[in-house]
Sequence to fold (496 residues):
Amino acid sequence: MSEALSELRERLAEIHDLASAASILGWDQQVMMPARGAGVRAEQLGTLGRVVHERFTDDAIGRLLDAARPEPGSTGEALVRVARRDWEKARRVPSELAAEIARAGALGHQAWVEARERSDFEAFLPFLQRNVELKLRYVECFDGYEDPYDVLLDDYEEGMTSAEVGALFAELRAELVPLIAAVAERADAVEDEVLHGEFPVAGQRALVRGVLERLGWSREGWRLDEAPHPFATSFGPGDVRLTTRYDPGYVGMALYGAIHEFGHGLYESQIDPALARTPLGEGASLGVHESQSRLWENVVARGRPFAGFLHGELARTFPEAFAGVDAEAYYRAVNRVRPSLIRVEADEATYGLHIILRFELEREMIAGTIALRDLPEVWNARMRDDLGVEVPDDARGVLQDVHWSGGDIGYFATYALGNLIAAQLWERARAELPDLDSSLAAGDGSSLRAWLGDRVHRHGRCYPPRELVARVVGGPVAVAPFVAYLRAKLGPIYGL
Ligand code: ZN
Fold:
């Protein structure tokens, strides 16, 4: 390794340590911190963020990147590629603008919390306007894009363009709208009453822990805690943190939420430890990350074999609630499709339409072809057209998501890309693992876990997301496998 490359690695490791310390503070804020700690915590996070930014955008990093000369095909080469990309992006944005974006995001978030409570879009509008204005200034820091929205998308999904996502989503919508309409005509065919009832939290905790342990969670390298807005994070390959939340009246929330976060955590836990403390020791992109959570939550845990295993666990934990409910009824219940207002509560079929709506509105916000003031009206009309639901108020409409309040514009698309990639990976895994169904039916996820570890996880960010997906599934992100998967599942359930 050249001297410049090893110095670069050392500096990046130090920066990574500081960023990890900030992540731990962030985890603590959401899981442990008493509310009155928020003021000081914001200062602490601000300081660490500033130090990380200053150290990373230093001229010296640029000189080391130029002098590094890694061997072709080596991890060093991937490190230099990824670090240069991040460095150049970070250098293009003046620190005053970055600080202003962060500040406006914090204010926007606070305003959104209050506006959503009162369902008052007017109160939130000036903050949204400010966030969009700042994002447009952010876009101006870059050049060489076809569409300004590409710049924002690239922050979450490297290399994806608006045109490409737009084409995928147009195809997806054309498939989903008639499929969901056909299901809606037979809505009575599936009930999910079994999931609602009395499920004491102590029992749910034990259940969730037991299921996660079967999937690969272990006390030695993971934690499971509770948080109002569940998430997963990790501070290295041996320290993965999951959170979930419990609803004593609905058993699906904690169980499926925890399995979702497990998918994220497993990705982090199986990244090659040699990549730890470098910019390569992370997921390839948000879309690829989300493909992992959705693969475990939806494809595995709502698939017939593993749903059978889950049914057995539930029936053992809650014998009264599950008396007379067989595995087939449970499987149907967890796959009920019903158009609804709230994205985070949507089933896997209607979910895509929630995302497409947000993606298209964001493109228009950035292109300036929609007046922000008109967002509620456009939102409500689209929900009626696409999903056939009436939006009763903005809290359950345009104000429901946190993302725009903090300035996260360009993020939503990665959720639906995750669903598409998950179906592609699943198609491949089934072809390569002939005993997959029988092992999942026994509650054993080890073969899929190992397969994902080998094909996807261990590489971290060594390949750009597009290349990683192509290496595993043999082509670009595509709609057809997801639609085929949905049809194969919903056809028999709904008698289509
Ligand atoms: Zn997720």
About this structure: The chain has a mean pLDDT of 96. The pocket of zinc ion is lined by residues 260, 264, 290, 293 (CB under 6 Å). The radius of gyration is 23 Å.
